[in-house]
Amino acid sequence: MTPERSAPAVPTATYRLQLQPEFPFGAAEAAVPYLAALGVSHLHLSPVLEAVPGSAHGYDVVDHARVRGELGGEAGLRSLAGTAREHGLGLVVDIVPNHMAAAPQHNRALWEVLREGPESPYARWFDIDWSAQGGQLLLPVLAHRLGEELGHLKVDGDVLRYHDHVFPLREGTGSLPLPQLLDAQWYRPVWWRLARTELNYRRFFSISELIGVRVEDPEVFAATHGTLLRLLGEGVIDGLRVDHPDGLADPDAYLNRLHKATGGRWTVVEKILAADEHLPAAWPVAGTTGYDALRHVDGLFTDPSGADELLGHYRRAAGPPDDRGGRWAPTLRRAAYEVVTHELATEVDRLTRVAGRLCAESPDPALRDHAPWALGTALRELLVRLHVYRPYASVGAAAVVTEEAAAEARAAFTVPEEAHAVDVVRDLLLGRWGDGPLHTEFRTRFAQTSSALRAKSAEDKAFYRYVPLLSANEVGGEPGDPAVPPEDFHAYCARVQRDWPVTGTVLSTHDTKRSADVRAAISVLTQCPGRWADVLAEVTGASGGAPDPHLVWAAWQTYFGLGQAAEDRLTGALLKHVREAGLHTTWTEQDPEYEAAVEAFVAGGARGATGRLVQHFRDATAPHIRANVLGAALVHLTMPGVPDVYQGTEGEYRALVDPDNRAPFTPQEGSSDKGELTRAALGLRRRRPEVFGVSAAYTPLVAGGPGAGHCVAFVRSGAVLTAVTRLSLRLAEAGGWRDTTLTLPPGRWVDVLDQDRKFEGQVRVADLFGRLPVALLEHVGGQ
């Protein structure tokens, strides 16, 4: 047996594995030798606790006390950890504190609440408003109204069955006639459409199948974290990735409690930062999971002038009005109005009721006589104007719910006197009218609703309406300003090294809408917007029969990014696209005729001459796609932070969102430039952790000469040098590198990928980039 080796306390690099019944702990254990040879220090596992049977992702937890049986149970996890240790690897585990699956037949805690009501010891686990819906927990599970579904509800002993759903019966009610039996329960099965306006429990975003958990309660925290904390204490797992902290009542307090409970283990949080937002300095975490790094790396390989030109072509070709995809800010605002009015109507109604109570019960006359409709309007107008996900106790609501936002919200009222409701709501949020339990509830609910609104309106709606450059429409992205100049990228890296040196960084995750390699291809279009417009005009004229020009634009960018994609993958991606956009069809109100036209368009275009035209253009730009792919990969692996390598992305990985990016892990066979580069960079990180860690340094290098702006370079701790080609197509059109040079720091440097290549002093960039458009050098001596 191989001697056991300890994994470092802080990862040098992690490798994300999507666990599921098709890829359990045993399969992950078999992959350990391959992953250890790759050069990572830790395996990053998707959630490992008991989930809904058959779940392909594990975020629908049903039992926090057990490691998931379908994956091999705790014994399987321990065996994986043991084998990982033998190869010098540790385990980082994804935890889900915000929600559980609302599936009572699998979720014992919820089952007990449904059976015993608010007196159940588990009632404190969930955010249930027992004052609403006559004291019954609304369960939106019926396919139609109750009258049409009554015959499908069956009493079976001490349970109630509805197709695959099973619910407990309140003691002593089993013999009642069905209508009276339903009225006698602590819950009420209703038509699923009522969830939008009538739901009385907190959920994950607008997904009623996931019920929110109150981990702010110390007893609930202990019960839901006990197993993972025990496994941490016993050395089975080594670090944590916290899913969706923005959904929690008080992320500050939760993260402090978690930090204390783990003894300060390496922990990163899935916090989505706006472009000008920083992670709260008070949070005792290593940093984020890395979407902020993704935005900066992607932006580095996006041509700003070309992105602007591409936007012009998009407006002319797709013809969207400003509030339907023509401009980013109006598109986002319109999407936010739709979400806050429809998908999150029940959350806003609850906020309005709490605000109304605060006004009615206040001893201060200044809070009296505010109509519920005015308070609700003020809430909606403020919510849609927040530019970040939510406020935090450690940051202060005034920095988020700004006076500028309040002024705009007041202007939305037609009667100026009614606009005073905006000031009332803002003052309540800022704590100016007291600080009792109801005030805390109001501020908490507002913050939780705000984070759901931002995610649903931006990532799940506006990103599918504003599509001039699909590579910019990524989690944490800024579609209205997609390019990141090199100097801004260097400033970001310096800030990360100073403030969050072991934060997570990513390029692809289980949630990215397009993998890094697909985005790298699409971003090349910013370097040739005119040529792309010509290609698009040709294929549009040749294909015909497109449902709408907006879809055409998105479809061919997707096809270009994937490259000869299987027809069913493209069809599935575009159907998701149009349903999320919600302009012609939606997930819940599907238009069969429109969706059939989408399928026919894909079938006629992808397989025919038009598909070959796009593929031909992709082939012509292949060297520049390669430069983007390799450049982004190397920057990610050597910039400040701890890189997370998503399964399969060590080689070519072209994937879209579900189900592409949650497929079972498959080792990359054969060799490739990207694979070779990834192994070299990861090997360096593991062999020389001090060069990249907490006390490391980040130093930008600036090239000189005609192609200087196309060379991005930096040095880590004076020992490792990264240089990549930026905007290679523009560079080629300008005549190539010519006499462009890069002055290396003193001493001798060797190419990590080719030990025979050595450099010193001032070098020609054309020589530095030999067979690859990137270079990774290591200092080997001299001053």
Automatic annotation (TrEMBL):
Residues 11-685 form the Glycosyl hydrolase family 13 catalytic domain. The lineage of its organism: Bacteria, Bacillati, Actinomycetota, Actinomycetes, Kitasatosporales. Pfam families: Alpha-amylase. This is Malto-oligosyltrehalose synthase. It comes from Streptomyces lannensis. Residues 658-677 are annotated as: Disordered. NCBIfam families: trehalose_TreY. Gene3D superfamilies: Glycosidases.
